[in-house]
């Protein structure tokens, strides 16, 4: 694990990714210091282009776009990392349990995993979200966590199966260590890079999907978030009236965050698998991000 | 054969699972499920039609398990109910009409991105560490992390609104009547260009990454070294020795892409106001047209399962080891 971290600090892609992430986190945390405007209130004339007062212009109902951008980062980060954590935690626990325990437990978990994998994720999310109606970011994060863990479980299980055969696991078994301890202390540390890639991939997936659900009008329109910004801009026909700042700002923000996270993920893959022996995990994640979007 | 039969049973179970979600979801929510599902139906549907619709979704005066069986019964007879928004059309015909547009859009985009992405992936892996590799594999990864709506909106803004090169909505010029004429068909193609380019950009990245990693895993194999030692040209080793084998896992990627085709273009269709499945679903969501929303989940699940089954069959055909097992 130490090697992974040291390697990352020497990797240019990882540093760029971390820098981008840091900028977004700092902007989100320090939002009240960076702008005096309330992101939810009407603070100016409608659809004003960028100016000294409103750095990124105003929306159709006169909200400050810059304020919405940096306050919205809080929502995207919270949902992304929250849902990413749930997805990774469930996937990792399921995967290790299935791979290590084997037998009936493995069969049950694998059946469930495959089942969740073949029911297309996005339509399922749309059905869930449309019944819940105006889902808040917390609800979106929980739904995402509950429906998107299957890829992680499958990748983790495969890796656990190969680690299980290693001598140090056999040694721990002979010493009579309990099963949970072997899984948590012997197997899990060897999965760090997979779990890391899984986590960051899930964060990207959650950020994209939350923004998509909100863009499609399934979120709570009162929320300040990038997805809702896109939704209101689209509803206000921002492109048709030439208010590019209204719609391109959240677009840029999503690209910026996505770029940072994916550079970081690429770097972890490079550092952890110098010969890309198990490097397919990243490819699988990419597939998953796309599949999760239902190839949106 | 046993392998394929087992897969078929599994797919049946998965389809029933999707139907079960559809059945229980409205009933699990607080409140009256009939009220939730059909509150917007009063204005368009007559009482008799509403009654038929309720029957389709299993809302009968009977214990829950009988309601469930009623619902499964209607699904397996192909009855997905009536659309509330597009009454008197049935859900199947609403979705069927839209499916044609989506299939054309996504079929073309998948073909373009598969060819382009796979070729780029092969070359990137072959010249691993070169400038070409760094530029394309990093941008491929970044491209997969960009939401489709961003790509679509940016493309629409620059090429549709600012430069005015392409139309900004619809599948064909609304002034033309659908006909098998040169004028109409060229209008359809002209309207499809921008959505297809956008979708191809969105899809290509994934193929590049998958193919590159598959190739790199194979390039260390002995038979590659052997091919080189024989003095074969780089091109022959690259395409006929390595790429041919690296393509196998990508086939499954392609099938998943086709399986999710239907959802695939959702956001792009909404942005370009293209009359495919995605746009239909979007308008169904706005109108809370639950029969259409639920029907969409079933049809997409079915498409996904079919695509998966085709992959299973093609694996059996392509990989002799599976035939013996």
From TrEMBL, chain A:
GO terms for cellular component: plasma membrane. Gene3D superfamilies: MetI-like. InterPro entries: BP-dependent_transpt_permease, MetI-like, MetI-like_sf, OppC_N. GO terms for molecular function: dipeptide transmembrane transporter activity. It is found in: Cell membrane. The keyword Transmembrane applies. Residues 73-265 form the ABC transmembrane type-1 domain. Belongs to the binding-protein-dependent transport system permease family. The keyword Transport applies. It is a multi-pass membrane protein. The chain crosses the membrane at residues 77-99, 187-208, 247-268. Keywords: Cell membrane, Membrane, Peptide transport, Protein transport, Transmembrane, Transmembrane helix, Transport. This is Peptide ABC transporter permease. GO terms for biological process: protein transport. It comes from Thalassospira mesophila. It holds the Pfam family OppC_N. Coiled coil: none annotated.
UniProtKB/TrEMBL annotation, chain B:
It is a multi-pass membrane protein. Residues 99-311 form the ABC transmembrane type-1 domain. It holds the Pfam family BPD_transp_1. Signal peptide: none annotated. One of its GO terms (cellular component) is plasma membrane. InterPro entries: BPD_transp_1_N (IPR045621), MetI-like (IPR000515), MetI-like_sf (IPR035906). The chain crosses the membrane at residues 98-123, 135-159, 188-209, 246-267, 297-318. The keyword Hydrolase does not apply. Keywords: Cell membrane, Membrane, Transmembrane, Transmembrane helix, Transport. GO terms for biological process: transmembrane transport. It is found in: Cell membrane. The keyword Iron does not apply. Belongs to the binding-protein-dependent transport system permease family. This is Peptide ABC transporter permease.
């Amino acid at each position: 694990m130490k090697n992974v971290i040291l390697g990352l600090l020497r990797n240019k892609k990882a540093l760029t990714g971390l820098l981008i992430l840091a900028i977004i986190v700092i902007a989100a945390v320090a939002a009240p210091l960076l702008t005096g405007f309330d992101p939810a209130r009407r603070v100016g004339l409608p659809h004003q282009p960028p100016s000294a007062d409103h750095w990124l212009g105003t929306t159709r109902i006169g909200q400050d776009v810059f304020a919405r951008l940096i306050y919205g980062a809080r929502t995207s980060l919270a949902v992304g990392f929250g849902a990413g954590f749930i997805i990774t935690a469930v996937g990792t626990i399921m995967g290790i349990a299935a791979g290590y325990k084997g037998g009936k437990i493995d069969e049950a978990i694998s059946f469930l995993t495959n089942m969740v994998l073949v029911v297309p994720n996005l339509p399922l999310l749309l059905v869930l979200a449309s019944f819940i109606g105006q889902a808040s970011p917390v609800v979106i994060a929980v739904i995402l966590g509950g429906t998107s863990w299957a890829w992680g479980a499958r990748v983790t299980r495969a890796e656990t199966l190969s680690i299980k055969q290693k001598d140090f696991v056999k040694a721990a078994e002979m010493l009579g260590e309990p099963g949970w301890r072997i899984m948590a202390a012997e197997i899990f540390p060897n999965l760090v890079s997979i779990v890391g890639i899984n986590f960051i991939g899930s964060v990207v997936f959650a950020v994209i999907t939350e923004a998509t659900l909100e863009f499609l009008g399934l979120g709570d329109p009162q929320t300040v978030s990038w997805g809702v910004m896109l939704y209101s801009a689209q509803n206000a026909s921002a492109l048709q009236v030439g208010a590019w700042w209204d719609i391109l700002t959240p677009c840029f923000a999503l690209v910026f965050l996505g770029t940072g996270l994916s550079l970081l993920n690429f770097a972890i893959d490079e550092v952890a698998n110098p010969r890309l022996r198990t490097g397919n995990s990243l490819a699988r994640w990419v597939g998953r991000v796309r599949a999760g979007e239902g190839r949106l | 054969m046993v392998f394929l039969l087992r897969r078929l049973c599994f797919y049946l179970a998965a389809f029933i699972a999707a139907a079960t979600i559809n059945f229980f979801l409205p009933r699990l929510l607080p409140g009256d499920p009939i009220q939730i599902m059909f509150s917007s139906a009063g204005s368009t549907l007559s009482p008799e039609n509403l009654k038929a619709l309720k029957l389709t979704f299993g809302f009968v005066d009977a214990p829950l398990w009988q309601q469930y069986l009623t619902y499964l019964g209607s699904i397996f007879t192909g009855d997905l109910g009536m659309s509330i928004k597009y009454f008197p059309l049935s859900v199947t015909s609403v979705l069927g009409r839209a499916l044609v547009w989506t299939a054309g859009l996504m079929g073309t985009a998948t073909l373009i991105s598969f060819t382009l992405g796979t070729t780029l992936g092969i070359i990137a892996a072959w010249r691993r560490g070169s400038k070409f590799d760094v530029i394309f594999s990093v941008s491929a990864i970044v491209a997969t992390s960009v939401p489709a709506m961003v790509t679509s909106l940016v493309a629409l803004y620059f090429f549709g609104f600012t430069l005015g090169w392409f139309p900004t909505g619809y599948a064909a010029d609304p002034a033309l009547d659908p006909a098998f004429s040169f004028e109409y068909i060229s209008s359809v193609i002209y309207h499809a260009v921008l959505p297809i380019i956008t979708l191809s950009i969105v899809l290509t990245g994934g193929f590049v990454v998958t193919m590159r990693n598959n190739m790199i895993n194979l390039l260390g194999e002995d038979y590659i070294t052997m091919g080189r030692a024989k003095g074969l040209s780089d091109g022959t080793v690259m395409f006929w020795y390595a790429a041919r084998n690296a393509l196998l896992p990508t086939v499954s990627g392609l099938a998943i892409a086709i399986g999710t085709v239907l959802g695939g273009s959702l956001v792009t269709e909404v942005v370009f106001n293209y009359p495919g499945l995605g746009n239909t679903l979007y308008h169904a969501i706005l109108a809370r047209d639950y029969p259409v929303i639920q029907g969409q989940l079933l049809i997409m699940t079915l498409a996904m399962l079919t695509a998966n089954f085709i992959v299973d069959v093609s694996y059996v055909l392509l990989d002799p080891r599976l035939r013996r097992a």
